[in-house]
Amino acid sequence: MPPNPISLGEFIIREQEKFPNASGDLSKILSSIKAAAKRVNYRILQASLHGNTPLENQKSNIHGENQTSLDVYADRIFIDSSRARREVCALGSEEQDDWIHFSDPEHNQSKYVLLIDPLDGSSNVDVNVSVGTIFSIYKRTSPLGGPAKVQDVLQSGRQQIAAGYILYGSSTMLVMSTGNGVNGFTLDPSMGSFYLSHPNLKYPKSGRIYSVNEGNYEHFPSGIKRLIKHYQTEDPKTNRPFTSRYIGSLVADFHRNLLKGGIYMYPQGTKAPQGKLRLQYECNPIAFLAEQAGGMATDGYSPILDLKPEGLHQRTPFFVGNTEMMEELHQFISNAEK
Ligand code: AHM
Ligand code: MG
Fold this sequence. Notes:
This protein is of the alpha+beta class. It has helices spanning 8-17, 25-45, 47-50, 69-83, 150-153, 222-232, 250-260, 279-292, 323-336, and strands at 88-93, 100-101, 112-120, 131-139, 162-168, 172-177, 183-188, 193-198, 209-211, 243-244, 263-266, 295-298, 318-322. Helix 6 crosses helix 9 (323-336).
C-alpha cells in the first residue's frame, strides 16, 4: 500500500465528485454498507469463541437451510442500517422469505433498491474459513413518491448501478464497482478503516484454477464432465493439469480466481436442476464485478446479467471466470450438445 493510502470514505466522495449533479444517495448507501460490514466483521472475528450455533428454536430459511446466529445477526445489521437511512425503498435478502418494502412516507421518496446475501457460506464460520457478504444496488423503477413495487427487486442484472462483496478472510476486504472498474479495499484493524489496496482489479488474461464441488460430478451435464477431465489431462503446452481449488464460499472462490485467473462453476445437476446459487443476490452482483474486471459470467449459454428474474430467490447454474477459460467452457458445452 502507498504511504498515504486512500480510505474507502475518501474514494466514495471522489467518485461522487465526478458527477456534479449526483444527489449523494448512492454514496450514503455505500457508506452504510461499509459501516454495517465492520460490525459483522467484528462478530465473525469472535465466532470461534462464541460459536455460530444454529438458533435455539431451530429456524430454517426459505431455502430449507438452517439459519445460524451469525446469519440472523448479519441480516439484521444490513436491514436495520438500510431502514435507518432514507436512500433505500426496498430490500431483498437471502434470509428473508419475501422482499421488504420500507413503507413509511419518507422511504416512498427513496430512489434505490438493495439486494443482499448478508452472510454467504456461513457454515464455513464453524471451521474458521472465509465467508462473505454480497450486495447489489439498483435504481427503483416504480414511480417516486409511492410505495416500492415487486418489480423493483426483480430487475435484470444489467440494470445494476453498483455491486460488491465483503470478504471476511485472512484480511477483511470490500471489493466493489459502480460501473467504472473494480476496486478492492482492505480493512486496517488498527485504524478501523478500509483503504484502497487493489485499484482497478482485472482478471489475468489466462488462468489455470478451476473451482467446483466435484462431489456432484455424477450429476453434471456431459460438457462440464468433459471439461473437468480436460483440466485434469496432462498437456505441457497449455500447462495442464490445472489446479483444483474449492473453498465452498463463493466470495472467497471468486476473489481468488479474480486475482489469479480461474473459473468457478456451480452447474445444474439432477440433484439441483437449476444449480444452487441465487440469481438476484449471489450471481448478478458477482457477474457485474466479473464483467467490470474483464471476465465473463453465464449460465452456460447466456450472460447472467441478461437473465430475466421471475422470483427473488430464483436459482441459476453459474459459471464465472476469466474470458479465455469461459470461452473454452462454452465450447465444451456446445460440443457436447452437437
Ligand atoms: P449459502 O448461500 O447457503 O451460504 O450457499 C452458497 C454457498 C456458496 O458460497 C458456495 O460456493 C456454495 O454454496 C457451496 O455449495 P456446496 O456445498 O453445494 O458446494
Ligand atoms: Mg448465499
